[in-house]
Amino acid sequence: MIRWKKLATLQRIFPPKLGIKIVLWKHLDPDQSQALKDALTLQNVKVILAEIFNLTNVEDLREAILLNLYTYTLQYARDEDFTIEKLSAYFSIVKDSHEYCTETSFMNLDETFAFFKDLLLCHSVYCPPHSAELFTLNEVRKMSFHMINTYFRHFKLYKYAFTPHVQLDLVLDYIGEPESMTDLVDPRISETKGSQVTDECIDKENELVKITEKGLLATS
Q1: pLDDT tens across 140-185, in order?
Q2: Are 72 and 97 spatial neighbours (Cβ–Cβ below 8 Å)?
Q3: Contact predicate 106/164, CB 8 Å
Q4: How far is CA 43 from CA 25, 63, 94, 95, in A?
Q5: In the Cβ-directed half-sphere of 176, how many Cα atoms lie within 13 Å?
Q6: CA angle at residue 122 from 119 to 127, to 5 degrees?
Q7: 161: nearest Cα among 25, 67, 66
Q8: Among residues 41, 122, 132, 167, which one has the fewest Cβ atoms lying within 10 Å of its Cβ?
Q9: Is 12 helix (H, G, I), strand (E, B) or coil?
Q10: Residue 132, helix vs strand vs coil
């Protein structure tokens, strides 16, 4: 009875969110996880990951970036001496967080970090069938710092490399506005201005003629 009360309390405190599921063995099965854990060198880890996820095109920059991300995620898990269960779960948490990041071309840093935290929580609290107590609190803290200092520190670079670039072509149509500035001028005003300009030109020409005649008379 006490056990069920505890579970009900945890479910109220940590309600399952849409899309947040246990990812143990999602991308790495037990045999693959064991092979990666037992690999002698980091280069061997990279070779195994390249075979599992078919990341063999060395000229493809996206594949190269993904392979590095996966490799150094496994390096962290190996350095922390994770069990194969923890290794598989942490790898899938990082992979799913990256895929969540690259679902859209628009900035979603806060949403991706919240998604990552929810995945960690889903694997650190005993609340079946929604979550499992796989990681300790200290491990969760260390994994969070690791992701902040690696993946999220270069978040914009991952966005730039893995999402389509958005270009906005903006065209404005003004409803009810004249098509050109000449339509704004009243024809009567333009005619008046035109006649004024003509009169001014005639007056200036007459003045020039008078000045010229005076000059000629003076010289004669």
Answers
A1: 999 999 999 999 999 999 999 998 877 777 877 777 665 555 555 5
A2: no
A3: no
A4: 23, 16, 20, 20
A5: 0
A6: 170
A7: 66
A8: 167
A9: helix
A10: strand
Could you give the C-alpha distances from 210 to 197, 200, 202, in angstroms and in order? Answer: 20, 16, 12
Q: Are 89 and 134 in contact (CB under 8 A)?
A: yes
Helix (H) and strand (E) counts for the chain? 9, 2
Q: What are 133's strand-pairing partners?
A: 124
Nearest of 140, 27, 30 to residue 85 by alpha carbon: 30
Q: Residue 59: its pLDDT value, please?
A: 85
Separation between Cα atoms, residue 20 and residue 116, nearest integer Å: 10
Listed in order, strand segments (DSSP E) in 17-158 are 124-127, 131-133
> Biggest alpha carbon distance in the chain?
132
pLDDT at position 169 is 78
Residue 203 CA, distance from chain mean position: 70
Say which residue the tokens 């190269």 belong to.
64
